[in-house]
Amino acid sequence: MQANPIFDADLIRRYDKAGPRYTSYPTAVQFHDGFDESEYRRQATISNARGGPLSLYFHIPFCDTVCYYCACNKVVTKVRAKAVPYLDDVYREMALQAALFEPGRPVEQLHWGGGTPTFLSPDQMRELMARTGRHFALKTDDTGEYSIEIDPREADAGTVAVLRELGFNRMSLGVQDFDPTVQQAVNRIQSEAQTLAVLQAARAEGFHGVSVDLIYGLPFQTVDSFLRTLDRVIDASPDRLSVFNYAHLPTRFMPQRRINADDLPAPAVKLSILEATIERLTSAGYVLIGMDHFAKPEDPLAIAQREGSLYRNFQGYATHAECDLVAMGVSAISQVGDSFSQNVKDLETYRLMLAEGRLPIERGLVVNDDDKLRRAVITELICHFELDGDAIGERFGIPFADYFSTELEHLAPFIDDGLVRVDGNRIQVLPVGRLMIRNVCMTFDRYLDTAGERRFSRTL
């Protein structure tokens, strides 16, 4: 099992800069509009030739109210009827997508995200899952990893029962913070009782795992106030936690303009919250999977990390690296064959393209051999905190030390600061360096000079 991280505030301040989260490599910044439907179809053919299971993602963009911190692609509305034409469009896209893939490829993973997926009515959710089962080979024995993002304000025990009936066995609960002052400042009024009722219902219905999402760095948060929320969450004993660093980017995300920057905790306070959070969670028995994810030692994520099979994709850390990802809905990102692709981001364009019988692809990227090599390097580092360069060299047919000679030289500051140890072609990220793992990965990213730091959040 990985040793617990060591918190060094001075080093963290020194390495705190903007950088990718590496849910993909190359990152979405490199996607371009030269990637079109014909290329996607070619990549689906490559995927079919390789075979293997699939992962499906559905983006449900609707939210009843806006959370001011949110950076997701969403449509804020109280008009539930807006879901009807959108679902009709999703069904059109699903039919187009399903026709590209060999029938019978099992769906090992399925995820509904948003927005708020439970904005849909129970009947609409049943219809969406039924249509999915007609087009794709869903697993009916409860062995797939079928997950959904839940806003506890938009769900109750009845909702949870419907989701379990449909085959969902994992859920992620959005909490962010239980403190009333913080909730008021970010326009997310959500009681502890609401949250725990959904969590308890998930357990009663036999969900395999429940994750809780928290955010630190929100207005009016202090170390003590955040630990009060954290202690309540620990008492509820979720299987996983995601503790995200709030990235205040009001020029990019309009809802964040409603947050008063003067109310945000100072950088030193944020670091203290992070340090206290890591100490409290590891003391409670959780394992730091990487970056901002924690899990119980018996959770599949922790097991995959110990076994060296952990993976990272657009949903974060994952356990099914072998799955091509087919994503549907506005702004959804697919990973098929040797490509990434993203759908258009607005409802009207999405509707018009599907009405014309076209896949609603806006941009994408075909990865080259160098991209695949660097993706493997970054994945090993960000998932397992170590890299066997000889194994990578043998796998890709390259002399590792020669190919990455410049990158290895750039690791010198990390080595000098005790963040990384290099022994021959083996790279190990030490406990004090694990919180700076994004910085270590950036050393191997050949696109950073062209991407520009302004496109990314701070690494810590």
TrEMBL record:
S-adenosyl-L-methionine 2 binds at Y69, C70, A71, G115, T116, Q176, R188, D213, A247. Its EC number is 1.3.98.3. GO terms for cellular component: cytoplasm. Its main location: cytoplasm. It comes from the Bacteria. Its cofactor is [4Fe-4S] cluster. Keywords: 4Fe-4S, Cytoplasm, Iron, Iron-sulfur, Metal-binding, Oxidoreductase, Porphyrin biosynthesis, S-adenosyl-L-methionine. It is found in: Cytoplasm. Residues 48-284 form the Radical SAM core domain. Monomer. Belongs to the anaerobic coproporphyrinogen-III oxidase family. PANTHER family: COPROPORPHYRINIGEN III OXIDASE, OXYGEN-INDEPENDENT COPROPORPHYRINOGEN III OXIDASE. This is Coproporphyrinogen-III oxidase. It comes from Thioalkalivibrio paradoxus ARh 1.
